[in-house]
Amino acid sequence: MNPFKLLSEVRSFWPGSLTLQKRLLAFFLLFLMAVMAGLFLLLIAAGVFTAGMKESRAFLENELTHVAEDISTDCGIISVEGVAISKRLTEQIEESLKEQKLSPAEMQDSPECLNSILHSCLEILYGALEKNKVSGAFLILDATVNPVLENAAFSRAGLFLKNMEPNAANRSESSIRYMRGPAHISRQNGLTVLPQWQMEFAVTEGDFFHTVIDTAKGSNLPLSRLYYWNPKSILQNDYQEAILLTVPLVARDGTILGACGFEISAMLFKLQNSPDNSVHTRVFSMLSPYNDETFDISGALFAGSCLASPKDLSGSMGLKAHGKGLYSFTTSTGGVYAGLYKPINLYPKDSAHAGNGWAVAVMIPEQDFSDYVAAQNSFILILLVLLLTFSVAAAALLSRRYITPVVEALKQMQQKDATNFKKTNIQEIDDLFEFLAAQDQSEPIKPGPIVSKAHTTGLFEAFVENIGSLSPAERAVFNLYMEGHTAKEIADILYLSINTIKTHNKRIYIKLNVASRKELMVYLNMLKEKGETIIAD
After folding, report:
1. What angle do CA 398, 399, 401 make, to 5 degrees?
2. Contact (CB, 8 A) for 136 and 129
3. Which residues contact 46 (CB under 8 A, 6 or more apart)?
């Protein structure tokens, strides 16, 4: 916008003409507007208003790096331990079958051997649970103790041990409980049975057990390429959501004896992988099955101090670019989050389940993210408003302060007496007054109508009478004025400074009761007209 046009529009809001103070104030305000606009553009160019977003991204990126590394490391260790425990259990099962003179293929048809097999495997399973950071360890044989029961096709013998305090450092007593298996084994080994205890596992078509068994059948892949991470689920009659690492039990002759593995409960995952909530209180991490930018959050584990509504933790979650490198996560139930994610490899590249992707994400509710950025920007905007308010007040004060001497000087000029001016300490104005004073003293005074008017009053007689009160020095200056000399000429004739002549002038004006040199010259002209002569003492 043209500043002159803006000034014209501003002027229209003031009635009458603009005073000098209003003009100066308007100039200051226009200048402040230009400065504030420039400052605002500089802040935008410097990224100040996106600092909150950058800080949030740096925070989420840092937390994602730590959480993803921890999860990847822990899952890698558990996978290796799962393969190792599978080999040990397979060896123990084959040894037990050999003692009973049974081949691995005959195990399913010999339910009487299952109890002794499970009893011999308990110590191995117990030791593995104590050694690893998991919430449970299990062994499931591909056989049932009661093959004649109605649901025998979906029942499998096995053992399931639960660690009730997986993060306890110094336990005074064992925290391992008995979840699945023959009751007499728990009694013989002094294990506390959980209320959710069942003698055997209930399995269904397509679940984690059948997935790993069916994959291992007819496969030539090594055991380290056959393990399977099952998404979050709840086993029948269990009480905890968990993901399961399942490894097949493959005998030397290729017979699939069953499966074993470890459990990572939702509680254990939360204890081990919660991100720092010092910046964003509702930040949380997620380990989820992932494929084509879609998260299956119904099979995911979450960790955080405060999660969103439970309805948002089911179904699926899609993502899209959010801005500044962040992603917007939207659940199928309407929850919206801002965060980052990173795919992780839970399987080797040539694994049978390598196509099952997993990813780790760290995110916060979208509203929390927006509020944080707004709070950061609000602080800056408040500072700018305070700066603008202070600047406007300073502009009003300065405009008044610097215009006041000019206004006072103009009032002096209205008195038409440039010889008695007061210094304003403004060089240009003081120079103007000195110029006007010099002009006033050198300008000849022409008699006018005022002379005839003076004859009709007693002022002239009083003036003549007051001449006698002048001092000799003042009479000398007065007489030279009578002769028509200027102040500068009188100073040269009497060998006095111009300032001394000005001092004499002031005293003469006071004693003769005149206000200026012009009035003095009027009376002198009147004296000349009347032919009166003033003789110096």
Report:
1. 60
2. yes
3. none
Q: How far apart are CA 11 and CA 32, in angstroms?
A: 17
Collapsed DSSP state (helix, strand, coil) of residue 198: strand
Q: Whole-angstrom Cα distance, residue 268 to residue 129? A: 14
Counting Cβ atoms within 10 Å, is residue 155 exposed (0-12), middle (13-18) or buried (19+)?
Answer: buried
Angle of helix 366-414 relative to helix 20-45, nearest 10 degrees, comes to: 150
Give one word for 235, left, alpha or beta, with left for phi > 0 and alpha for psi -120 to 50.
beta
Give the whole-angstrom CA distance, residue 398 versus residue 191. 88
**Mind listing the pLDDT tens digit for each residue in 307-352?**
545 456 666 777 676 655 788 888 877 778 888 999 999 999 999 9
What is the distance between the alpha carbons of residues 482 and 474, in angstroms, rounded to a whole number?
12
Q: Are strands 136-141 and 256-265 parallel, antiparallel or unpaired?
A: antiparallel
* Bridge partners, residue 136, by sequence: 162, 263
Question: Which of 196, 128, 132, 123 shows the shortest CA–CA distance to 166?
Answer: 132
How many residues can be counted in the chain? 537
Q: Is 348 helix (H, G, I), strand (E, B) or coil?
A: coil
The separation between the first and the last C-alpha atoms of the chain, rounded to the nearest angstrom, is: 75
Q: Is pLDDT of 418 > 60?
A: no
What residues form DSSP beta bridges with 248?
A: 259
- Look at the pTM and tell me if it is higher than 0.85: no
Calpha distance 385→485 (Å, rounded) = 65
Question: Which two three-digit tokens encode residue 121?
Answer: 């495997």
Q: Report the percentage of the chain scoring pLDDT > 70.
A: 77
